[in-house]
Amino acid sequence: MLIPMSADPSGPVPEVVKTVHVYGWYVIIFLLSFLSVGECIAGDAFAGIIFSIMAGIVVFLLVDGCKNMSMYCLFMLGTMSSFQCFFDLLGLISVVGGRETSESTMQGTDKDVTVITRITVHPFFDPKMGQQYNAQSSMMVASPGIMLACTFMCYLSYNAFSDSLFDVEEEAGPLFNYRGGGPGGNSLAYGANQPSPRSQRRPASSRELVIVCRADGETESVPVLKHDASCCVVSLKCID
């Protein structure tokens, strides 16, 4: 396999991670906690839970001198952070020119109802829209930056290890079992079954005619079947 499915450390944690990178990870924990609280204030509790879980993962990696930090965990955390950064950045680009709010009203009777939807475009930051609106805008700006910082720290600590998760192991045996080629050769593909001895054709049986000469002058022919000859053989045997 290319990636070992195990959370155990792939080797000793480099000293540069324990002495230098650890301070960057402390900053990541603070930023993720800030992002979690900010998302809850902005009204997105689900996003707040996700970011708090990510902060807990980083804390788990750093306990007891980064003993739980492995290349596999760094790879998975970095992949998740990079995808989150990408989608948050797309959402930010789509509303950076202004955010839209809609309000619908219904008019008319029971038989004739008219629905009027009013769409208003507000600036990205608008003090008139209240605290929650501006908190949402702030989180939309902060989230891609924090996810990018987390991805960078994963990349930095991952490259500090001397090994790699993508070392391809050699095959235990040849992929194809090749025995000769061309006319008269025998080429077998990988996984092909060997022909059984019973399936091999036996040489055609031949008949050997033995002529026995007896003492009284009479002759007697005795046919004998043999499997190791390819033609009919006639032999003469005299008995006194």
Automatic annotation (TrEMBL):
The chain crosses the membrane at residues 20-38, 45-63, 69-96. Keywords: Membrane, Transmembrane, Transmembrane helix. This is Uncharacterized protein. The lineage of its organism: Eukaryota, Sar, Alveolata, Dinophyceae, Suessiales.
